[in-house]
Amino acid sequence: MIFLRSSNVLFLKPKKTAGTSFEIALSRFAEEDDIITPISNVDEDIRRNLGFQTCQNYLKRPQEYNLNDAITYLRRGARAKKFYNHITAAKTRRRLGPNLFDAAYKVSIVRNPFDMIVSLYFWKTRKDEVRPSIQEWVKRNKSVLRRYMDQYYLNGTDIIDFYVRFENFEEDILELENRVPALQGLWSTFNSINAKGNIRPKKSAPSAILSEEPEVRQVVHSIFGDLIDRFDYRLT
């Protein structure tokens, strides 16, 4: 999650959408009072080596601590986070404040849900000695999958002002630059960054993985049907 005060841009970061690379690129435009949530140490090093602002202004102030925050700090010395990497729209609004949140130009990334599910499946099971079938995994993780809409929706309403499509990064990031002139150069910066490697095996296209999995496709439609219809996503 990043909030750029000067350009009034709020980036809400979903998972498995190349969000880290986009977040690093956005950091190029951050100033000292902007909010930037932490990413992995490796990715923070990328940000630092590029000369961009790293994680900042994401911790709670002591006067904002609740009892659990205070106990955790006293026991472990760990400071409580006010904002974090994949924070939901609801928590962001509550913690940033309704006025700032509602007025911000909210940006996120959307990805073909069929492709996202396959990518997520291979990522989440990468350390399993015996990988479960994708049908088994989806059945066990329906509640997890539903949370993937939490960066886009608040009380059932889509609150994102501009979606960058995973499949059309160049076109959409250039359009974002047109809409927010303060972000000129975002595409060239993003295009030079590769924050995470792909661990999916070759020949893992959604059509190959899901063509014989009607129950999985039904789950995908039930959770992500609005995005599938809006962006005309297909099983490819």
Biggest sheet, open or closed, and with what strands and sense? 5 strands, mixed
Q: Tell me, rounded to a whole number, the average pLDDT.
A: 93
CATH second-level architecture: 3-Layer(aba) Sandwich
Alpha-carbon distance between the termini? 30 Å
Total DSSP helices: 12
User: Tally of extended strands?
Assistant: 7
Q: Give the low-confidence spans.
A: none
Percent helix range? 40-55%
Q: Provide the CATH topology.
A: Rossmann fold
Strand content: 5-15%
How many distinct folded domains? 1
Describe what this molecule looks like in 3D.
- This protein has 236 residues and is of the alpha/beta class.
- It has one domain: 3-Layer(aba) Sandwich (Rossmann fold), CATH 3.40.50.
- It has 12 helices and 7 strands.
- The protein has a 5-stranded mixed sheet. The chain has a two-stranded antiparallel sheet with strand order 5-6.
- A hairpin with a 4-residue loop joins strand 1 and strand 2.
- Helix 1 runs parallel beside helix 2.
- The longest helix is centred in the last third of the chain and has 17 residues, at 214-230.
- The chain is globular, with a radius of gyration of 19 Å.
- The two termini are 30 Å apart.
